[in-house]
Amino acid sequence: MDKLIITGGQRLDGEIRISGAKNAALPILAATLLADTPVTVCNLPHLHDITTMIELFGRMGVQPVIDEKLSVEVDANSIKTLIAPYELVKTMRASILVLGPMLARFGEAEVALPGGCAIGSRPVDLHIRGLEALGAQIEMEGGYIKAKAPAGGLRGGHFFFDIVSVTGTENIMMAAALANGRTVLENAAREPEVVDLANFLNGMGAQVKGAGTDTIVIEGVKRLGGGRYSVMPDRIETGTYLVAAAATRGRVKLKDTDPTILEAVLLKLEEAGAQIDTGNNWISLDMKGNRPKAVSVRTAPYPAFPTDMQAQFISLNAIAEGTGTVIETVFENRFMHVYEMNRMGARILVEGNTAIVTGVPCLKGAPVMATDLRASASLVIAGLVAEGDTLIDRIYHIDRGYECIEEKLQLLGAKIRRIPG
Known about the structure:
Blueprint: E1 3-7, E2 13-17, H1 22-31, E3 39-42, H2 48-59, E4 65-66, E5 72-74, E6 83-84, H3 86-89, H4 99-106, E7 108-112, H5 125-132, E8 137-141, E9 144-148, E10 158-160, H6 166-177, E11 182-186, H7 192-203, E12 207-209, E13 215-219, E14 227-230, H8 235-247, E15 251-255, H9 263-271, E16 275-278, E17 282-286, E18 297-298, H10 310-318, E19 323-327, H11 336-343, E20 347-351, E21 354-358, E22 363-364, E23 367-369, H12 373-385, E24 386-387, E25 389-393, H13 396-399, H14 405-411, E26 415-419
Parallel strand pairs: 2-15, 3-14, 6-7, 10-11, 18-19, 22-24, 23-25
Antiparallel strand pairs: 1-25, 1-26, 3-5, 4-5, 7-9, 8-9, 11-13, 12-13, 15-17, 16-17, 19-21, 20-21
Helix pairs in contact: 1-2, 1-7, 4-6, 5-6, 6-7, 8-10, 8-12, 10-12, 11-12
């Protein structure tokens, strides 16, 4: 397994480009299965999860055409099997997003129960109940979700999410796009990635309204056609590099991003003492050499503070002035990175779903192990501010969510390199 070695103590300074959003790209790729003519998706990040989704398509008989800029053309008419096998699905939870599109367009689907990061319970029951509300017949057998549409196809329905679910909202929205009649989704996820998917569907001829609010209305259409679409920028990658710059007392400008999709994060960075400036497609941060101030955050569904930025702010608080509390309300097992940071000299106390972080002047480099995607990013930030060398093991987690992380950090002046496993 590859590792990262970081020699800390360098202020980040410079400009980098932000990649396309993995959490928007994966549902958009799944939605290409709804189209009866070829679709091209642009600005895809070069990530393992994207490769896994493309490999999954190949297993089903769909052969995407990839160009040198990682734009992908998908023609779902060549599909040969409606089964998403366990050996691929177990590595990536987002594989379940092919369930709704296959069921809506082809009338049936068989998808293995998914795997993914070990950050707590993320049940698929909302996906199943939502599809049942559209008339689907679903059985669980041998670790697979086996779904069939009624004669004449899925029909519009009403579904209330008792827990806000991003992938659940996306799966039912995609299925409803080809259902007969109107579908109303209440307590729907409001994340920008849901809006990006809705925009993609509408570009193919769907009639989706209300994305970005908690009520989404979909008028089913008979068919969806192809087109060309560019995936939105990655707000979590954006936030991660901003926090890394703030923690190192540095200055960065991030290009090809969107300041309107991470306002809660920008507010907390300003509270930590950063000067933030923004334009239509860029964000700059300047700490003017100052040590950050500790901030308290509470995670919640969008537009509140994102759970995917919680670990990075723990790293920021670990070397900040004062004490900050980080309350995690979305996942119940997302503080595993804390114990690795404490090995580096951090002072973090976990009580239930709350981490109390008392800043120290400096962390000390140490061998650490990544436990999930965002925990990996937090350990990279800790390594950047630590004295000496930090060796991060199990970085395949990082490669699932950050495109060329060591190259981008090197462009900002970090001393970081990958050691092949």
